[in-house]
């Protein structure tokens, strides 16, 4: 071992005290002086809150509560792991490790038990060298400066080191995708594929096709990947998305089901399966997935009150009121002082009491809805649609129409959600045309506003153009189309007349909003990159 | 209802393996301590102990992977690897045992030799062979990797022992005849390695293993060829 570990802070997470002792003695032997021990995930997380560790050595099995994977997810989610830290997952069997996790939450290394000192040190050494080799790139990514990261990656690629070339092409391609530079990404993946048909490179080509709306090509590529490497779990997620995009909902559901069977521990996938199956009317699959999601959610940062409400809704539909109430109580317990959970509970109770024709309890439950919707502007769209239905149910047609109008305005370019709104509205209002006509009208208005804004801008009336689109944005803040055009106009304005602090603040707010409402990463990345260029220009003397 | 209908065998298997691996970790740790205390004495018994612990570990791992292959739940996760990294990983696992047994373990491999494989699986497979080889080697074992024709990479484990017995050389490791449970000479390890080799595919080429006694060191030569 050439690296001196004396200055490294190590967190050792292992529930079995004899194992802890034995690993500790191995670490001391290597010259490590600073070791903190944790017997479970919550002790480990508390330690990580207090200080930043350089190395986390974590057993996958940690007894009854959170496992190592859930610990890693939470640490990343809460930003308790610096990008320089090395996370090594200790597993009983090597073979299962690759299906444990999704792409974004992979540990740096897996180490199978039993291991000796030499095996441990060489893994640590390998990771220290890797991290220091890639440090400039990872530091830039950590600061969200993708342009700089790409520059560093290109610099390393120019060194033509055969030992690192493939690794750099992979990183470079992912970065290029994130700034919308599909041509470079494609070139990198193809260079890898010219050497060997590696599944991840083909998967990358599929992602590029998907992001360019070439869904059939993407589906073909993803299917090839799965055929060649059935353990590539993230490919199933993308294939599901691609099937959804071409509205093949049964294929989407089947694909996701396969992924869930391969990796039943992944909560987010179970949640998605529950929603997809419920929408498709496949109640048995949905119910099972909800139950698993609720169970897994106990130990995960990705837990959601939607899992409880979704299952409760199914119980309400089958008139199993007792179970529905039980879930509402559980949901309130798990999500204390959480507006979304309160709103979901109020919605469910209103539905239940209304069904029981209990006027006073219906009124009581319904009265809780309005204040929450007024105070919070981050309520999920599926819940708002439920609320619109409930407004209608209790006879508050005006509120229902208002909300349907807002939803259509905000999601006018989200075809699948618009279809859902129209379908649901037809169902609960018995009015076949209202929502569909409103949608068509809204779409026309939107195009008009947008064209007007763009024309004003072209004629040099920058302020007017901006004000017009900003007005539209304030009315429908979740409309991706308006938001992205507003951002583009501001960007051009900055290019033409220079950057001010005010404009930079606005620009950053738009970018965060775009990320929050799910504008694809390549589009926000592209704008980020442009902005970085302009910022760099303006700071030059 | 049969009582076994309540038994979730895959879960029990996974759980048992986890428990046994913890035990093996403790055993290995104890061996390490004892070896340190015993520095001056010959550690034949400790060497034997560590050898057996390694064998148990290899058998567990094989059991689990073969079970999954049988259930069609397993495919190799192929990526670009460097042969030298694979051989180094094998040596890291085996070095202390070779030291205790006073055997020499050498690597011959070009620094930039690329092979495409599931590195964890291949490391496990070669480790199994190397661990067995010290039963038969007299003084040394040679580990090597070279590029072959048609894009194959040949990993070899050679020793200076008595060589493979005739019935090994004449049987095909891929048919189950080698796994002869009645004679006690099971060859399960070789069956496992051959199964793993065959799962590595490139176009119409498949991985394979070869066994012979044409070895410059005078003993057995095992080769794993990956396409």
Report on the structure:
Chain A has 541 residues and is mainly alpha-helical. The two termini of chain A are 48 Å apart. Chain A has 27 helices and five strands. Among the domains of chain A are: 9-133, Rossmann fold; 443-539, Serine Threonine Protein Phosphatase 5, Tetratricopeptide repeat (Alpha Horseshoe). The mean pLDDT of chain A is 89. Chain A has a five-stranded parallel sheet, sandwiched between helices. In chain A, helix 7 packs antiparallel against helix 8 (182-195), helix 12 (249-262) packs antiparallel against helix 13 and helix 17 (339-355) packs antiparallel against helix 18 (359-367). Chain B folds into two domains: 1-74; 77-227, Heat Shock Protein 90. In chain B, the strands form three sheets. Chain B has a five-stranded mixed sheet with strand order 2-4-5-9-8, covered by helices on one side. A two-stranded antiparallel ribbon of chain B has the order 1-3. A two-stranded antiparallel ribbon of chain B has the order 6-7. In chain B, helix 1 packs antiparallel against helix 2. Classes of the chains: A mainly alpha (541), B alpha+beta (227). Chain A binds chain B through residues 16, 18-19, 22, 25, 61, 92-98, 110, 112-119, 122, 162-163, 166, 195-200, 229-231, and chain B through 14, 17-18, 21-22, 24-29, 32, 53, 57, 61, 64-65, 68, 74-75, 77-80, 82, 88-89, 92-93, 95-96, 111-112, 114, 116, 120-121, 124, 202.
Keywords:
heterodimer; A: 541 residues; mainly alpha; Rossmann fold; Serine Threonine Protein Phosphatase 5, Tetratricopeptide repeat; five-stranded parallel β-sheet; 27 helices; 5% strand; B: 227 residues; alpha+beta; Heat Shock Protein 90; 2 domains; five-stranded mixed β-sheet; two-stranded antiparallel sheet; 9 strands
């Amino acid at each position: 071992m050439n690296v001196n570990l004396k200055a490294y802070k190590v967190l050792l997470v292992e529930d079995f005290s004899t194992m802890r002792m034995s690993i500790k003695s191995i670490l001391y032997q290597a010259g490590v002086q600073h070791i903190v021990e944790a017997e479970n995930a919550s002790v480990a997380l508390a330690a990580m809150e207090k200080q930043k560790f350089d190395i986390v050595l974590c057993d996958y099995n940690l007894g009854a509560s959170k496992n190592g994977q859930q610990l890693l997810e939470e640490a990343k989610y809460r930003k308790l792991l610096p990008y320089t830290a090395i996370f090594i997952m200790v597993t009983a069997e090597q073979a299962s490790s690759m299906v444990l996790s999704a792409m974004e939450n992979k540990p740096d290394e897996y180490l199978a038990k039993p291991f000796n000192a030499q095996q441990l040190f060489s893994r640590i050494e390998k990771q220290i060298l890797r991290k220091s080799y890639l440090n400039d790139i990872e530091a830039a990514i950590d600061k969200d400066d993708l342009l700089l990261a790409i520059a560093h990656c290109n610099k390393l690629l120019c060194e033509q080191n055969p030992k690192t070339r493939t690794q750099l092409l992979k990183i470079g391609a992912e970065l290029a995708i994130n700034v919308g530079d599909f041509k470079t990404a494609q070139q990198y993946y193809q260079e890898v594929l010219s050497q060997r048909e590696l599944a991840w490179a083909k998967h990358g080509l599929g992602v590029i096709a998907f992001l360019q709306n070439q869904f059939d090509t993407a589906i073909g590529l993803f299917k090839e990947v799965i055929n060649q490497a059935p353990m590539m779990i993230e490919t199933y997620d993308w294939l599901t998305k691609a099937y959804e995009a071409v509205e093949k909902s049964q294929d989407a559901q089947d694909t996701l089901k396969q992924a869930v069977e391969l990796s039943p521990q992944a909560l987010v996938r179970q949640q998605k399966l529950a929603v997809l199956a419920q929408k498709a009317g496949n109640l048995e699959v949905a119910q099972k997935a909800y139950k698993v999601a609720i169970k897994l959610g106990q130990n995960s940062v990705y837990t959601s009150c939607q899992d409880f409400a979704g299952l409760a809704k199914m119980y309400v539909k089958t008139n199993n009121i007792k179970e529905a109430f039980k879930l509402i109580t559980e949901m309130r317990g798990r999500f204390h002082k959480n507006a979304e959970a309160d709103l979901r509970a109020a919605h469910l109770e209103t539905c239940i009491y209304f069904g029981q024709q209990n006027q006073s309890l219906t009124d009581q439950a319904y009265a809780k809805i309005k204040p929450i919707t007024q105070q919070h502007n981050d309520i999920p769209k599926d819940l708002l649609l439920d609320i619109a239905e409930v407004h209608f149910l209790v006879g508050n047609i005006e509120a229902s129409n208002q909300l349907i109008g807002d939803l259509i305005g905000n999601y006018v370019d989200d075809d699948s959600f618009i279809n859902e709104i129209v379908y649901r509205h037809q169902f609960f209002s018995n009015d076949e045309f209202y929502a569909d006509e409103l949608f068509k009208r809204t779409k026309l208005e939107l195009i008009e506003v947008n064209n007007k804004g763009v024309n004003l801008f072209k004629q040099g009336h920058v302020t007017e153009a901006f004000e017009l689109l900003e007005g539209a944005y304030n009315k429908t803040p979740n409309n991706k189309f308006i938001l992205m055009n507003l951002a583009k106009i501001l960007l051009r304005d900055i290019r033409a007349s220079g950057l001010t602090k005010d404009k930079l603040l606005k620009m950053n707010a738009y970018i965060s909003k775009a990320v929050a409402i799910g504008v694809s990463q390549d589009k926000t990345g592209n704008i980020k990159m442009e902005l970085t260029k302009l910022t760099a220009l303006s700071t030059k003397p | 209802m049969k009582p076994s209908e309540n038994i979730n065998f895959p879960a029990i298997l996974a759980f048992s393996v986890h428990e046994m691996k913890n035990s093996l970790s403790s055993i290995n740790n104890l061996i390490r301590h004892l070896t340190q205390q015993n520095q001056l004495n010959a550690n034949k018994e400790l060497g034997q102990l560590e050898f057996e612990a390694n064998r148990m570990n290899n058998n567990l791992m094989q059991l689990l992977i073969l079970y999954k292959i049988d259930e069609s739940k397993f495919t190799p996760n192929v990526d670009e690897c460097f042969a030298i990294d694979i051989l180094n990983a094998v040596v890291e696992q085996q070095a202390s045992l070779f030291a205790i047994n006073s055997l020499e373990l050498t690597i011959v491999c070009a620094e930039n030799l690329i092979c495409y494989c599931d590195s964890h699986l291949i490391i496990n497979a070669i480790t199994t062979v190397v661990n067995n080889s010290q039963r038969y080697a007299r003084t040394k074992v040679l580990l090597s990797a070279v590029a072959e024709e048609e894009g194959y990479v040949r990993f070899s484990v050679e020793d200076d022992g008595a060589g493979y017995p005739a019935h090994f050389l004449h049987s095909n490791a891929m048919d189950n005849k080698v796994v002869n449970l009645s004679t006690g000479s099971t060859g399960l390890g070789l069956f496992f390695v051959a199964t793993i080799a065959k799962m590595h595919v490139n176009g119409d080429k498949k991985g394979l293993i070869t066994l012979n006694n044409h070895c410059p060191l005078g003993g057995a030569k095992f080769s794993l060829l990956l396409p």
